[in-house]
Amino acid sequence: MTTGEATKTRSAAVIDGIKSSTWSSRIAVALTAFLLVMLLVRAVQEPALFTSQLLIGLTNGAILSLIALGYTLVYGIIELINFAHGDNFMIGSFVGLTVLSGTIFGLGLFAPITINSGAPLRILGVLIALFVAMAACGLLNVGIERVAYKPLRNAPRLAVLITAIGMSFILQNVGLVWKGPIQVPFPELISSANILPSDAIIFRWKDLFVVLVTVPLLVALSYFIGSTKQGKAMRAVAQDKDAAAMVGINVNRTISITFLLGGILAGASGVMYGLFNGITIFNVGFTQGLYAFTAAVLGGIGNLTGAVVGGLLIGVISAMSDQYIGTSWTPIVIFSVLILVLVFRPRGLLGDRSAVQGGGE
Amino acid sequence: MSGLRRVISLVVLGMVAALVAGCGGGGDQGGGGSGGGQTVKIVSDLPLQGANRFQSTTMVNAIEMAIDERNGKAGNVNIEYESQDNATAQAGQWDEAKCAENAQTAAQDEEIVGWIGPFNSGCAVVEIPILNEAGLGMISPANTYIGLTKPGGEPDEPEKYYPTGERNYTRVIVADDEQGQAGALLMEEEGVESVYILDDKETYGKGLADQVQQSADELGIQVIGREGVDTTAANFRSVMNKIAREDPDAIYFGGIIENNAAQLVKDKLGAGMSNDDVLFIGPDGIFLDEFLSQGGEAAEGAYITFGGLPESELSDKGQQFVQEYESRYDDEVQPYTAYAYEAANVMLDAIERASKKGEVTRETVLKEIFATEDYSGVLGTWSFDEDGDTTLTELSVQRVENGEFEYQRTIDAGEM
Fold this sequence. Notes:
Chain A is mainly α. Chain A is about 75% helix and about 0% strand. In chain A, a hairpin with a 2-residue loop joins β1 (about 105) and β2.
């Protein structure tokens, strides 16, 4: 009896919700449902193809997610869109490449690690490249904050935005001088062979590598923010800088640590991008940064879960669009989705700043 | 007080301006009158930054060499040469704004009577109309896009590039209608029955892919799909995965190396399509050593068509040029080096003929460029037709073997 009543009130609430909704949101729901059904039909028709594309989308999206996290972390804490972040990611891939080449600052430390090196050496090389790039990019990001953003902390927000764009140009030109204005190849250290026995679904060692790097980083990041004292301080600063300072939190140090975290993620994703795609270029930070920033906005900028969801979503959308619509339309599809989401949910899919500020919209 | 000062400075400024103008006028008269000691200028316009910079540098060297061989003179006219760069570091390749800027600057400089370049067809699209208004004759060593000189591209081509109605553009390389035919012919010879065609959405790449598609249709090769790829994407895995499902015998890519062609080949292999099972065919836009170094193992077995001949297949004069170039610069020639040399020599001959007939002006040089007939140079014996295209029809096919481009065979598109 009671359950029946509960269902009744719930269904009544749903009907009320539908009645009170606007026509535009009804159309949006119908459109989303239509697209999902279309995809589902395709998935049932050719499950192997659909799964392959889904996996491609998810791995591409995972790399985007890591970059997007850097944008969102910084935005969550000082409400700055750190345009230099994408270029920091590019520097990360260059640092990784230099480490793998064995020649650092003109000093030949060890022989280049290439496809012909033994498996243990290759694994070691990848790990060292990852750690060096993470350290370098983390410190670089902290340095950028000290030099270009900290002096402007109380200036109008537009001023900091401009210095961020300036830093982006500086880094891009550093990359340009460093590796030249052409695509540079990465050594193929990770096998492109399929792990799965059948040829129908492709999941390569490279894809596994992306998962093995991304997941631990995400877990560590959420542990750090959710369960450590420093993480608590970050959330406090994100909520209210002045109040946080009043209760004795070192705001400057907390902001520096946020930039450090963002840089570490940029370094990791830079090396991963290079090893995964096999090619990097000085302006990769711009093109990939644009998509990553889009991912952060899509998920709700400032929201860590949102950045991951946004990144994965953009990866999957572009893979599906490549398959079912046509690759020439992919950028249009991605940005149409962004516009649609922002029209109906101006604060992004999961709402802005909620996770850093302690949950809830 | 300050008012007086302003008046004085204005007067001084006016006097200086008048003086400069007077000098300029005098200089012009001197140049025109002296005849024998006349100095004219030619410029080249190539992308000197980005993936193409090695090749462009050899092309500039070849032009300098052609001028030096004549002791800096064409007939009795002194030649000044300036190498312009139409690439920007930011773009990492040719840049539309830079192309337009270079053309505008040259159009203003009356001393310039000849233009060698550009390298990229997309750049030519911007430059031809500007230089057409200025009446400056152009010889391109490398543009292959068909619509620049003849119908076959967009509906209003080529007329829209020539606002004055007079032609001013020529090229010493075989155009893409023939390179497209060569690509399709190659597929036929290799027993390809179905092909998937991709392009980079640029003037050159898309135009060429159109030509290939047309020729493939004519030869009865099934075109399974045709797409323009997003060159800003991190990789092309989902596109390649889709293509793998269609199971074509070949993939054709119309585009340039700067638009991530090496990534495309890598992802093609990653999707399980080896270059032996599914042929990869690309045009002269990826006929660069960069393609080999970036593609690595993945480039092995790829076919490249080229709207000309590699240095090993050139005429005797061509062989002589290659030897002289390599001993002079201690550097290997690139596919387009000989074409730049030929373009420079055609230009210098045109200036020489113009000087023998009278005054060397843009108009007379342009007339003489189009009058080039039965020219015997490093590329063979050829003429310009009324569209400004070469009468040569031979193209070559190379394949990547052991990390190098190996010449495979010559295809004569004129016989089709």
